[in-house]
Amino acid sequence: MPATKEQVLAALAAVKSPEGAPLPATGKLSEVVVSDGKVFFSITVEASVVQAWEGVRKAAESAVRALPGVTSALVALTGERAAGAPRAAPPPAKAPGGHGHAHPPRGERPVQGPPGVAAIVAVASGKGGVGKSTTAVNLALGLRDLGLKVGVLDADIYGPSMPKLLGIRGRPETLGGNRLKPMSGYGLTVMSIGFLVEEETPMIWRGPMVMSALTQMLREVEWGTLDVMVVDMPPGTGDAQLTIAQQVPLAGAVIVSTPQDLALIDARRGVEMFKRVNVPLLGIVENMSYFVCPKCGERSDIFGHGGARREAEKLGVPFLGEVPLDMAIRETSDAGRPVVATAPDGPHAKVYREIAGRVRDQLKGRGTGRVAPKIVIEA
Ligand code: ADP
């Protein structure tokens, strides 16, 4: 029998705030979402006392996980600044005098990456629906085909799509303590908020909550040793995205855009966002670049193909490649059978592998970690 919300609240009454009050009585709990044995809620406290509450968050998670009928629990701790108080982590602004930016120094990002991961690469887009997640998953598989050990972190908590794109069902196992075992599919190590909460569960995420959930997915998941972790970012360039770009130690970012002008304006914003926080731009991918008629094989540039390449040149960012608009990509993607894994000899897999090769070269060129192909001995 799945646990009920009442049972969860009763268990939380045994967890005490730093001042000794039972957690449900503190007024700091969000709505507790219980769905088929999966529990999710957040604790919101003033930013200045977040550290004192981290133990409470962990205790709450353990208490809920220990309940019979609970299969997973995710507790986000959110630091909220009081009205008028300075921001705990201000986005880097132009330095006084207007010269340059006040960048956080590289390597001093507040969130540590998992210890065994050599390079974290963000896949981002200026807006939704341009094929960011499809690109992320096929790029990850392309990197896998180059002999790298690859993980995928689905940070698109507004619309997690990795469970669907990789056709992975089930829930991550809990290991000792608060740690979770990631899922796997097509040789990739995968974690997504979609494994922890029901897809239909409506969730309102604010910037700090995003970071809190993401920090847990980075730090409390046994990622093991990975050459590259591909992070599927939430679409757009809002507060949540900026926070991730600023706080996660990214080795670089890949921007996905369609060729249309409007999408390119959004893509430019994406480029600007990463530049602002000093994350190297590994390049731009033009998705749905051209259309090959499935009947006659004729190619047409319905969206004015080539815009992203020109834009990349203008911005001084590498151009990584063009992915055609093709039903096969859409169908395999939406059916959980990504094209690079299920049609490895086809033309699309080749395109994605070439893009992956350029991403790998960009990482190598920047001296990021051990991104060298492994020797694969075929049986
Ligand atoms: P985003 O992550 O940017 O919101 P998705 O990757 O979810 O975008 O893609 C949106 C839709 O477009 C999905 O149905 C996906 O299958 C489809 N799609 C993505 N790239 C292509 C492509 N190159 N050709 C055809 N369909 C595509």
Overview features:
379 residues, alpha/beta, GMP Synthetase, Chain A, domain 3, Rossmann fold, 2 domains, nine-stranded mixed sheet, three-stranded mixed sheet, 11 helices, disordered C terminus, binds adenosine-5'-diphosphate
Word description of this protein:
With 379 residues, this protein is α/β, with parallel strands linked by helices. The protein contains eleven helices and twelve strands. Helix 3 (132-145) packs across helix 11 (347-365), helix 5 (207-219) runs parallel beside helix 6 (239-247) and helix 7 (261-276) runs parallel beside helix 8. The radius of gyration is 21 Å and the shape is elongated. Residues 125, 128-134, 161, 235, 287-288, 323, 325-326, 329-330, 333-334 line the site of adenosine-5'-diphosphate.
Chemical compounds bound to the protein: adenosine-5'-diphosphate
**CATH architecture label of the largest domain:** 3-Layer(aba) Sandwich
Structural class: alpha/beta
Put simply, the count of helices is: 11
Could you give a short account of the major beta sheet? 9 strands, mixed
By CATH, the topology of the largest domain is Rossmann fold
Mean pLDDT: 83
**Cα gyration radius (Å):** 21 Å
Residue runs with pLDDT of under 50 for 5 or more positions: 83-107, 369-379
Instruction: Estimate what percentage of residues fall within beta strands.
Output: 15-25%
Task: Indicate how many domains the architecture comprises.
Answer: 2
- Helix percentage range: 25-40%
Quote the distance from N terminus to C terminus. Answer: 46 Å
Any idea what the shape is?
A: elongated
CATH C-level label of the largest domain? Alpha Beta
Superfamily (CATH H level) name of the largest domain: P-loop containing nucleotide triphosphate hydrolases
Number of strands: 12
Question: Order of helices and strands, N to C?
Answer: HEEHEEHEHEEHEHEHEEHEHHH
